[in-house]
Design goal:
Order of helices and strands: EEEEEEHE
Number of strands: 7
Strand content: over 45%
Structural class: mainly beta
Distance between the termini: 32 Å
Low-confidence stretches: none
Strand order of the largest sheet: 6-5-4-3-2-1-7
Number of helices: 1
Oligomer: single chain
Radius of gyration: 13 Å
Shape: globular
Number of domains: 1
Mean pLDDT: 93
Length: 118
């Protein structure tokens, strides 16, 4: 079982539709799990209230910044996996573009195009 992000507060910054999923970009995240999140993409399937998939841009701790200032983590009910570290994950547009592609692939929605709602 994986650990979903513990989000105390966050500011929704953008919303997308990807197939039957609503995707919300969260910023200014205050976490309750000790992880320093820069951004989170939360994927919620239509008809459900809780996300089933998260993509997270997390600030790397000072001792782990050799490969980049931020790491990209994929979290679902079965796993939590760091996909890599790079300075690029601190940029919202780079993070969203890559995160939506990874989310679509993970959810078998490669033929769907994300549509920005707000």
């Amino acid at each position: 079982m994986s650990r979903f992000p513990v989000i105390r507060t966050a500011i929704p910054q953008r919303r997308y539709r990807l197939g039957e999923f609503n995707v919300t970009l969260l910023g200014e995240v205050e976490s309750g799990d000790g992880i320093d999140y820069r951004y989170i993409l939360a994927f919620v399937e239509e008809g459900r209230t809780q996300p089933s998939l998260y993509l997270c841009s997390e600030r790397n701790p000072p001792g782990a910044r050799g490969d980049g200032s931020h790491r990209l983590r994929l979290v679902n009910g079965a796993m939590s996996e760091v996909l890599g570290s790079d300075d690029a994950w601190r940029d919202v547009d780079v993070f969203v573009e890559k995160g939506l592609r990874i989310g679509a692939s993970t959810l078998a929605l490669q033929s769907e195009q994300p549509v920005q709602l707000a």
